[in-house]
């Protein structure tokens, strides 16, 4: 929705009419599901020209349905319970009533669930059929050419294929059982030899082969023919890649991170001519023409590095180098469809570990949206910004935890960065702050080193270089650092939170870049994060700490001389990992918000003005959130919530609204395992952009605001 509002901009010192958009970093692309969506399919459940989406969710024993609207956007999910541990889902008109029905194969209770005739956002009736085996993968096909759709299932326990023939009265008869060479997790039907009978092609995981069973007119099949492929084949697709009017196979090999291409020949034979590398542990493959060049392209989901690989088709059955796009955590399956009706095929990918699916919108020529990425060191854990070389452009500085160094990326006028330079610090740098510690009007750097229990100080020279490192001891396993003048001597002091001994360390500054020995104060159990601010009305800096182990926030009140007293604890959401101080109710008093990892929420603690807090409300947001920030991203004068989702590839945003509530959550792709973020107008267009460090992919992602 677009709203028109008037705001006064400090930059222009005048009043402008602007659009307040609700998707500053692109359209909604992620849709939530029930736990463990392992497969995604297209459907026409509304009996219209609109394409709906269905996921099957193993841990919640359910299917999620996403109906397509008139504008081709998708509604939020509607969930239906099925059998126990569903492994596969299909849609088909099983009773020839011109409505698509939905079927799941449920492995743990040996059953099939039938949901018949979807109308008015519900199925008209439901049936369960018990089997005498544990079903796995499933297909629906008319095997015996009687114009009714039959059911074909794998039984991994016994290495068999079971065929249930449709009896035309919503019942099915177990007609044929075929024993195969080994476990099969995927199969497909195609008439390979043009005899008008469907043939069966399946993967054999343990034998590193695919098998072909040629079909007969009565729904039976020949003995298997075997073809060697890579290690642990997980999926396959069929197409004519070299334009010889014969079908070829593409097979994903889970254990050796490859795909195998087998070309078809006239005598019902296939030969392996090409192998291509893809991402780690490929799970699924589809074949489409993404760039409209009349050549078929390959799209593969890679489960362990959370990516999709695309290889564009070339002449004579060859393929380009791979293009890689980030998805969510553990992508399991993929479908293609023109979701936004721009005559370009988009991609939808289900994610097992983050309970959602992602739509990648095709930008043309087979290109898909991806944030601007800058490669840095190993496992970047924290990010800060400042002016390190006095050129008026903002610079970024990142801690590379597994390289034991920090890295500076120098900013340019257009919001880009280059000329990175790195400096050694202590073991496992985890958090960073930039400030002037020696009062020379130049930015300096302080870093906490988690594995050696120290702070590294590097003073700035003002030209983008840093001086020799100096170490100061703190408590055990320091995780975060902040600075402030704690004793009112006009010199900056430092505070660290020490996870392993449930304490904070305070180091008072001398004003020359060196610091006193630490003083420690006990806080809650397993503290993770801290912030320095004025929480009462005495003008002395106080400290707030979030404690993961006892789900609390500790407030230590400053006396103005560098010492603290009157510890107070407040209960928050479960396992808070990060907190910030922000005035969220516009009463000019700093309130506290925590990111609660275990129950996917944030807690608001409202400051009553005398240093006491009231737990105002909790909001659901994110997937195991590990970091939180607040900013007005869409310029409507309401603070928006931004959290990093742990063990994922996304951040979550909920936009603030006028009645002290927040919009529905929108997820944006960043990099693999995001760890920290900052909001800043990098390209000077008066809109806040986001920079995110990504631990696993070793990058910084920049998301430019397009409002």
Explain the overall architecture.
With 707 residues, this protein is mostly beta strands. The strands form 15 sheets. A four-stranded antiparallel sheet has the order 3-30-29-28, with no helix packed on it. Strand 40 and strand 41 form a beta hairpin.
SSE diagram, text form:
Elements: E1 3-9, E2 14-20, E3 30-32, E4 37-43, E5 52-57, E6 62-66, E7 78-81, E8 86-92, E9 101-106, E10 111-119, E11 122-130, E12 138-141, E13 150-155, E14 160-166, E15 172-179, E16 187-190, E17 199-204, E18 209-213, E19 225-228, E20 233-239, E21 248-253, E22 258-264, E23 270-277, E24 282-288, E25 297-302, E26 307-311, E27 323-326, E28 331-337, E29 346-351, E30 356-360, E31 372-375, E32 380-386, E33 395-400, E34 405-411, E35 417-424, E36 429-435, E37 444-449, E38 454-458, E39 470-473, E40 478-484, E41 493-498, E42 503-507, E43 519-522, E44 527-533, E45 542-547, E46 552-558, E47 564-571, E48 576-582, E49 591-596, E50 601-607, E51 613-620, E52 625-631, E53 640-645, E54 650-654, E55 666-669, E56 674-680, E57 689-694, E58 699-703
Antiparallel strand pairs: 1-2, 3-30, 4-5, 5-6, 6-7, 8-9, 9-10, 10-11, 12-13, 13-14, 14-15, 16-17, 17-18, 18-19, 20-21, 21-22, 22-23, 24-25, 25-26, 26-27, 28-29, 29-30, 31-58, 32-33, 33-34, 34-35, 36-37, 37-38, 38-39, 40-41, 41-42, 42-43, 44-45, 45-46, 46-47, 48-49, 49-50, 50-51, 52-53, 53-54, ...
């Amino acid at each position: 929705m677009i709203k028109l509002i008037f705001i006064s901009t400090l930059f222009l010192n005048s009043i402008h009419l602007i659009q307040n958009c609700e998707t500053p970093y692109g359209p909604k692309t992620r849709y939530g599901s029930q736990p463990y969506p392992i497969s995604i399919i297209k459907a026409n459940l509304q009996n219209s020209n609109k394409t709906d989406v269905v996921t099957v969710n193993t841990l919640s024993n359910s299917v999620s349905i996403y109906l397509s609207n008139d504008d081709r956007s998708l509604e939020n999910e509607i969930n239906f319970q099925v059998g126990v541990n569903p492994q596969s889902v299909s849609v088909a008109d099983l009773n020839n009533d011109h409505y698509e029905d939905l079927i799941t194969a449920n492995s743990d209770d040996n059953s099939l669930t039938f949901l018949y005739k979807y109308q008015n956002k519900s199925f008209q009736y439901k049936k369960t059929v018990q089997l005498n085996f544990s079903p796995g993968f499933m297909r629906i096909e008319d095997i015996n050419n009687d114009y009714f759709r039959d059911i074909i299932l794998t039984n991994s326990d016994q290495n068999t294929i079971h065929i249930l023939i449709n009896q035309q009265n919503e019942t099915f008869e177990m007609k044929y059982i075929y024993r195969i060479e080994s476990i099969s997790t995927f199969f497909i039907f195609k008439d390979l030899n043009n005899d008008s009978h469907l043939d069966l092609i399946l993967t054999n995981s343990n034998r590193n082969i695919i098998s072909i069973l040629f079909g007969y007119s009565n729904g039976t099949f020949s003995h298997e023919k075997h073809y060697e492929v890579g290690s642990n084949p997980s999926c396959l697709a069929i197409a004519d890649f070299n334009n010889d009017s014969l079908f070829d196979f593409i097979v994903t090999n889970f254990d050796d991170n490859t795909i195998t291409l087998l070309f078809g020949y006239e005598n019902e034979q296939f030969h392996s001519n090409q192998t291509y590398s893809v991402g780690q542990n490929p799970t699924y493959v589809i074949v489409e023409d993404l760039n409209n060049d009349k050549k078929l392209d390959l799209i593969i989901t890679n489960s362990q590095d959370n990516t999709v690989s695309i290889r564009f088709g070339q002449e004579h059955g060859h393929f380009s180098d791979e293009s890689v796009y980030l998805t969510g955590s553990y992508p399991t399956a993929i479908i293609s469809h023109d979701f936004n009706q721009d005559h370009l095929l988009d991609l939808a990918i289900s994610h097992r570990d983050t309970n959602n699916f992602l739509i990648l919108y095709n930008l043309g020529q087979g290109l898909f949206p991806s944030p601007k990425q800058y490669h840095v060191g190993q496992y970047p854990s924290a990010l800060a910004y400042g002016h390190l070389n006095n050129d008026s452009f903002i610079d970024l500085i990142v801690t590379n935890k597994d390289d034991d160094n920090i890295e500076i990326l120098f900013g340019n006028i257009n919001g880009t960065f280059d000329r990175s330079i790195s400096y050694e610090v202590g073991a496992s740098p985890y958090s960073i702050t930039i400030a002037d510690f020696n009062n020379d009007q130049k930015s300096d750097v302080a870093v906490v080193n988690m594995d050696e229990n120290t702070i590294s100080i590097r003073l700035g020279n003002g030209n983008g270089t840093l001086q020799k490192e100096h170490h100061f001891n703190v408590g055990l396993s320091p995780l975060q650092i902040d600075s402030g003048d704690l004793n009112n001597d006009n010199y900056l002091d430092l505070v660290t939170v020490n996870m392993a001994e449930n304490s904070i360390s305070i180091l008072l500054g001398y004003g020359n870049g060196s610091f006193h020995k630490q003083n420690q104060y006990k806080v809650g159990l397993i503290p993770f994060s801290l912030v320095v601010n004025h929480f009462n009305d005495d003008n002395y800096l106080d400290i707030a700490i979030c404690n993961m182990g006892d789900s609390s926030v500790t407030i230590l009140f400053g006396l103005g001389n560098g010492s603290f007293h009157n510890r107070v604890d407040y209960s928050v959401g479960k396992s808070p990992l990060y907190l910030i101080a922000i005035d969220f109710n516009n009463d000019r008093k700093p309130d506290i918000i925590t990111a609660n990892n275990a129950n996917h929420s944030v807690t608001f603690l409202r400051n009553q003005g005398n240093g006491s807090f009231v737990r105002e409300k909790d909001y659901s947001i994110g997937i195991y959130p590990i970091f939180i920030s607040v900013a007005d991203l869409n310029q409507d004068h309401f603070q928006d919530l931004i959290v990093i989702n742990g063990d994922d590839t996304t951040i979550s945003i909920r936009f603030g609204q006028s009645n002290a509530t927040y919009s529905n959550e929108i997820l944006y792709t960043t990099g693999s395992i995001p760890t920290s973020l900052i909001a800043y107008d990098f390209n000077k267009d008066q809109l806040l952009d986001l920079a995110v460090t990504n631990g696993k992919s070793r990058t910084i992602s920049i998301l430019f605001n397009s409002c």
